[in-house]
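SAMPLE LOG
Freezer: B-3
Tube label: C17
Construct: single chain, 107 aa
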Amino acid sequence: MSAAHALLTSRVRYVLQRAGFCLVDRADDAAPGMRVSEIPSGVLVRWTALGGTSELHGSRDLETSMGSIVRAAVTAVLADAGHFVMSSGAAGDLIVLPGDQIQFHAP
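STRUCTURE (predicted):
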C-alpha cells in the first residue's frame, strides 16, 4: 500500500484509540475489539463482539443492536475528525476513504 494509505490508517487508529475504543491486532480475528487494516480502497474498520455476549442474554438481537450502536459511534467519531466513512455492506464493516477518492456528482 502507499504511504498515503499508511498515514490514513495511522490517523484512523489514533482517532479511535483517543476516543477510547479497544484496538486489537488484525491477525487475531477471534478476540473481541476493533480492528483497523489497510485495504486497496482505504481503511477497513471491523468490530468483533465479545464472544459470549449474545449467549449470556439469550438473544441474537442484542448482538445485532450492539453492533449497530458501535458502528454508529465509530462513524460519528471518525466523521467528526474529518474522515469520510461508509458501510462496506458486509457484516457491518466500515470503510474510511482517503480524501483523493471522494467524488461527489451533481444530479
